[in-house]
Amino acid sequence: MKLYRLLHLMNILVNNDKVTIKQLSEKLEVSRRTIYRDLETLTMAGFPIVSYPGYDGGITVAEGYKLDKCLLSLEDWENILTGLNTIKTMGDTEKIEYLIGKIAPKNIETINQQSDIVIDLSQWYDDDTQDLIIGIRNAIGNKQLVSIEYISKISSTVRTIEPYKLVFKERDWYIYAYCLLRMDFRLFKLNRISAYEIMVDNFIPRQVTVPSFALKNELYEKDNNTQYRIVLEFALENKEFLLQALGALNFKIADNKGIIDFNTTNLDYAVNLIISLQDKIKVISPPILQEQVLQTINKMKKLYEG
């Protein structure tokens, strides 16, 4: 508790011109005598405290030890605060607000209002996923092993991992970790983790070379070089549903109907995509895609008839 108070005291002194003993006492919620003892402790540790007597006096530190916030431009502060505020939406509210309070200039509210970017990642996970993200971040910080039940495209396995990075890519969260089962670094998608446990065992960190985390576009994932032009049709009443699902990039409106067209080399993925859109979409071309969609629908029908 004393160490935390001393660190807080140092930050107040570094980031203010002069502060009185009374102000420090009120800010840290301790007695004036405690403040004097803490200042003596810092002085003995070599922290360059300067005291100015008189009406306009107070406590501060030598100029060479202060962070000159004027070195950072308004754009610099906008970028820093955008990043910190983004992390704050992930559940680290108190820590990040404390950090912002330590480094931010006095006109922080004005800077926040002028920034043209607001990123809120809280919409991308539910409460269970948020708990997982917080747990993984703690495990990374504490260097704790994590046991996960992971469902891949071909199997379900229990793995022990050494977590190193949380990655947000496109619309999903991932864990970049060393997998003790595969004896290699892997990228694990959070929504494929069916269960997890933060273990009491610690690990010795490995040398990590952070990759680009480039993810394959499943529309072009197949080794097949044949490219298909997909044309889909939809009623305008389903426009909002499809915009939310696919985005507006390939949308067109013609003759009171909606058209979506794109290219792909992966027909299997295109079939699954169209099935997931239920009865909101109709395949116009190519004929091979129409046939595969109908085959899939017939298989689904047989499941219910049986």
UniProtKB/TrEMBL annotation:
Gene3D superfamilies recorded: Winged helix-like DNA-binding domain superfamily/Winged helix DNA-binding domain (1.10.10.10)
Task: Give yes or no: UniProt keyword Transcription.
Answer: yes
An example of a Pfam family matching this protein is HTH_11
The answer on whether this UniProt entry bears the keyword Transit peptide reads no
Q: Which InterPro entries match?
A: CBASS_pafABC_assoc_protein, DeoR_HTH, HTH_11, PafC-like, WH-like_DNA-bd_sf, WH_DNA-bd_sf, WYL_dom
- The organism's place on the tree of life at top rank: Bacteria
Q: Name one GO molecular function term.
A: DNA-binding transcription factor activity
Enumerate the spans annotated as HTH deoR-type domain: 2-57
Q: Which UniProt keywords apply?
A: Transcription, Transcription regulation
User: PANTHER family per the record?
Assistant: PROTEIN PAFC, PTHR34580
* Protein name from the UniProt record: WYL domain protein
Q: In which organism is this protein found?
A: Faecalibacterium prausnitzii
